[in-house]
Fold each of these.
Amino acid sequence: MLRYIIKRLVFAIPTLFAVSIIAFIIIQLPPGDYLTTLLADWASQGGAVEAGTVAAMRERYGLDQPMYFQYYKWMWGILTQGDFGISFELGKPVTELIWNRLGFSLLLSLLTLCFVWAVAIPIGILSAVRQYSISDYGATFLAFFFLAVPDFLMALSAMYVMSAWFGQSVGGLFSPDYIDAGWSFGKLIDFAKHVWLPVIVIGLGSLAALVRIMRANLLDELSKPYVTTARAKGMSEFELLIRYPVRLALNPLISTLGWILPAVISGEIIVSVVMSLPTTGPLLLRALLAQDMYLAGSLILLISVLTIIGTLISDILLALTDPRIRFQ
Amino acid sequence: MSNNDTILKVENLKTYFPTRIGIFKAVDGVSFELKRGKTLCVVGESGSGKSVTARSILQIVDRPGRIEDGLIELTRADGSVTDLAKLDPRGKDIRSVRGKEIAMIFQEPMSSLSPVHRIGTQIGEALRIHFGIRGQAQRARVLELLKQVEIPRPETAIDRYTFEFSGGMRQRVMIAMALACNPQVLIADEPTTALDVTTQAEILDLIKRLQQSHGMSVLFITHDMGVVAEIADEVIVMYRGKVMERGPVEQIFHAPQDDYTRRLIGSVVKLEKKAEVRLTRPEIPAEAAPLLDVKNLSLTFASGLKAVDDVSLIVRPGETLGIVGESGSGKTTMGRCLLRIYDPQAGAIAYRRPDGSTVDLRTADKGTLKEVRREVRMIFQDPVGSLSPRKTVGQIIAEPLKLAGVSGSELEHRVAELMRQVGLDPAWRERYPHAFSGGQRQRIGIARAIAVKPRLIIADEATSALDVSLRSQMLDLMMSLQDQLGLSYVFISHDMSVIRYMCDRVAVMYSGKIVETGETDQVVNNPQHDYTRALLSAIPHPDPRDRRIHKRFRYDPTLKPSGTVSANG
């Protein structure tokens, strides 16, 4: 088992490396760089810039060097000093800008995952056990409905409903009084009051997929001979259901963790912008628009790292729950 | 009617499956009585309703099947009588019978056990459900059960998973599970059908011994009249949901009243000797240049397992070479090496092309292999898994022809001809494989194999998944095709009886090596190696007056070869 985990960890390293290269290439793909965007900005405000100044700035930011060299410098900084570069636009080190937000992103994603699983598994079980019943069709319809509604629309309508009909403060993760306050019990309560809405909005989009996967897995398992064996032992129908088919149907669901996590994170970006949450989402959008290379690159890299870690966790969980994988 | 001896009495049982096109009467008015301490065999082909009968007793028939009518009277330990048919299938009352008073074991020991739960947990569950035994007490009892079913090293086996066991050991686990609560009745639903002949003999032995020590009644479901003759006290013969004949085993075998019973017995007796068409055939000249000449073939897997160990054999044109051995002997791997599905590391496979030249298939390049694979074809064991469920039968048979460049009306014509050749109606070409029975599916596999006029067919356990009654039919078909098309066969099987029926020569394989080879008659009548003798004596003998399985010869490689091994009962 330990060997398996170590093997997985070692395999994750080249993946991380490849991801960092792709992240860097992607942010370089749009024509021009941060300076072109900046100049266009200045020009639209009626300013004129001398060609010499531009060249000097380009040299100062290291933008005149070839891409592989820029990548090398960036990676070297990250690996040796944990230095992700500086944000051109905000003039601050990237690390200073993102750690706090990254924490909230991670927390939000984890809460969303828990929410989605907690809702999807019982609904999936119900749909499978009562296949083709009203509850099956109803659950399926709702799940697909939420899948079809775009995230931002859902966020907007949820905010409207909550503030117009229930008078709740919506948007952000805290009430104005707590935003800059240190962590306290009151702040935690306030956080809980705010966080559930974005969790539901982000989660509902992924719900359909998980419900359908759980339903299909369980339907496969329900007709397996080992279920009949357990029934022939005299086990009650409910214990039988939970102990055998559901237990086995969960295994493929665990492996979905690897792709549900990226889905949640990308859903989170849009929802966060709409609901103005203090997560990485809005920051990433701004950095991309401004071609703020190091900031955008670092965010994409860190989000990808989270995804790889998610996959790693799902692999390890799968090995823990399924002896067939462990003994391979 | 029922006296003290009867523990389970079934009367006029009807179990129906409502379907879209009407009601399917899986069990249609079945009656029988199971006596205390006796074995009642329910015999019939697949689809006869024997399994549904067994499941009806415990009310575990798969949906949408349900008991329409009839009595299932169980005499309980305190002398009271309960009609199981009246109980609610999901209720407490029937659950207190399941596993406690009537236990059941199933055909597929792999899929009938959960792959993610330790076997100790699965066995112990019945103890917890019925007696509330948990923890150390439960573990102690499970260990005792594992000892009873003779699983080696119970202390470590208890914490293992099913996939770490062989088929025979898994079936032992199933039996241990069934015995947990000391049931009065054991229902065994084809418990040995998925096993090798030798393993089957061991499991039958074990059930017999446990039946005697526990005083259980056994309801044994099988399609194999040979097994019935070996173990039954009473027999009921089922066909299409109805009982055709019932009586003591002696009467069923020596004075059968019903034609169907006679046919079932006949299909096993037929396999007791060489096929008639092969008795009259002129011998294949021994000096004829061999079609396939395998020398010192060896394959070692990455795990270090020597699956094929220095195997040499020849196949002459027009002959059938049998490869026999139990699972794990390397016979399947060897067959696959011949087609280079696996790459053997050493040796030579000299194959003679139609133009007289020979190629070494072990070292042949891709192009040559592609050509040779048209001349050497394969038939597989599993007639369900080896046919694509999304293609019609016509498309499946046409596939190798298309690859060979046949098209248009010639293709249509060839497919129809092939279907007729293997005994299928060409009008069925638009149907999908699931619409066919097991025997018919295997015919489709054969039609596909002979489509491009091959010279050699490697048949890997081609009849093992079929009912005994269909086996001889399939073998007869293969032999008639051999005579028509001048085919050679390499016939791989674990069952000496099918080898004896159709093979000219036989090679006996044991742990990767060929331990004996020769003319089939000679090997069968005068086996030189103890392992061959063990294989032969494990075949169920269809005569209840001469029960052999319990006194069969067992091969133990740790003992000295030949002569010193005692025949233990």
Amino acid sequence: MRIALFVTCLADTLFPEAAKATVGLLERLGHEVVFPEDQTCCGQMHVNTGYPDEALRLVRRHVRVFAPYDVVVAPSGSCVGSVRHQHAAVARRAGDERLAAQAEDAGRRTYELSEFLVDVLGVTDVGAYYPHRVTYHPTCHSLRMLRVGERPLRLLRAVRGLELVELPQAEQCCGFGGTFAVKNADTSTAMLADKMRNVLATRADVCTAGDASCLMHIGGGLSRLRTGVRTVHLAEILASTERSETVGERQRLGVRP
Amino acid sequence: MTRTFLGMPATAPRGVGHLRGEEPFPAAARRALVDAQLRRNLRHATTTIRGKSGAVIGEVPDWQELRAAARAIKTDTMARLPELLEQLEAAVTAAGGTVHWAADAVEANRIVTDLVGAAGADRVMKVKSMATQEIGLNEALEAAGIEPVETDLAELIVQLGDDRPSHILVPAIHRNRAEIREIFLRAMPGVDPTLTDEPAVLAAAARRHLRETFLSTRVAVSGANFAVAETGTLAVVESEGNGRMCLTLPETLITVMGIEKVVPTWRDLEVFLQLLPRASTGERMNPYTSMWTGVTPGDGPQAFHLVLLDNGRSAVLADEVGRQALHCIRCSACLNVCPVYERAGGHAYGSVYPGPIGAVLSPQLTGVADNASLPYASSLCGACYDACPVMIDIPSILVHLRGQAPHPRAEATAMAAAAYTMDHPALYAAAQRAARLSRLAGPRGRGLPPPLSGWTASRDLPEPPPQTFREWWAQR
């Protein structure tokens, strides 16, 4: 299958390992991955911060760039949620019904990685090897906008060597919320403190999720407190094999002290 | 009645009632977050209610269908609200009640104060009511020399403590029993000075105090959960029985009701009376459901007044996206699942309507400029939408209202520049490189300038990667 990668601006800029892992994983499963280079950002930050007029040009760009592809995959529940649930509304608000219809069509062809693997490709065992104790945080948009449900857990359970430990109060938001983390930094940090308490209670070495944004938040807190717990995108775990683990090719989502 | 269209409907007036806070949400939340008692009370209370509510909702096989039915009824109601309100007025009047129309809080307070004065009373007893809290009725009555007595236990605690409610359903959720004992000892007339802080003892003290009030007060003021346009029937649901006392014992009953509380038919109540208690208190059925239609000779209050309150609701109705907020049945399920509310508490929202529903309702009632920080008081996690028994899409309304909020100039400039850059891939790639270089040269992960200092105060920033994904792809 020919798959267009919707990399997301955050993964492109700050977490390329998650995007490279997505490419590597899909190619390992026998598919062709293309990267439409005119893509930039889906505009979610603008929409959610109250700038729908500015977001319109980004929606228009996104719809145009991905129009030629039958299947679009992104390593992010949040960005896919924005494409599927916000783009048409932004277009309608601007009175552009044609763009709204195109955005709805694009939304139907766009998948979050775990949805794509389980629902479209029909695989849960992707042949990965990851010998670590891992807990999974279901990000709010993948959980409640996309309803990915158990799909990421099914994928993780099939990973060889991986010890999956349940995260208490997993469904509570980590406190990221895009610009919420800055505009309401104190409340965001209070939410993060409780999320970290639950992550640490699992005694996992790695906290994973389907969104680099939430992982940047959780990982930023875990790093600040020198907890020694790492955050790793779901795609990186699924892309890992015996070879990458032993040869040490794997780059980690490092954070600066 | 006839009306002349005079442009956009008015928002709730300033200087009266409790819809506006004194400071923006982030500042108020910052102070609340360091209150260990508050954090513990909220965590315990919301976790308990979430568990109870989840269990009884799980028993209802057609819960999703009920939610959809409720949304359909409310959508229909809002689409023909003027017609239904006039039908309600006719039905209440035919049953012996009197209907008053209050454009705003000032008018509503004046109407109620005049009615109490005309009844020759200097004291009223009150059923817990959000509408009268919204308009500041207690303050208006006191200014007119009339003593209002709250008869709901938690509202009584708030009133005696000279405090403000912090939860729609559990207004004293921020108090613990030691504090309640102190409040009773200080402010409850005739209280036993040996009062302990055992819940049963505190409840008994309140009961003695209230029993005296119930038997000696001739006028009661209530809100309403529902009003049936078809029959003119008003409904109040409650747990303590104080409502039943207030609705049946006095000579005069005055009900202040937001205009959005009307439902078209008697049959519609079956939907809401199944949804409300399970979503709200986690009960299968609320202990007391009181319904009355006008007056009945020789039985109950012999004078009934219904005050229909607008106070910005018509302005909310005028907004196609935001009007869903008027569907709210005040169950407070969204508060109980909200991670922001659970940590910041109700007072941080500044309005009598806290939590997710408050963050979309208050700014619309007052105009977004007067509550500009509230639409941002959410991480958009979506738990409120899932919990709402009438399926209000609160996250979408929050985002919609953010689009109407006044923006800081520097932020607006940066967002416009970002959108322009992101619409030009070459510029975007250059910006990515520039950002990486500035990070390599600049402070390493901490101490970024405002507004990013909000991030680095508690969180490290990721190490900038040696190359972006698109650079890697190009070299592949």
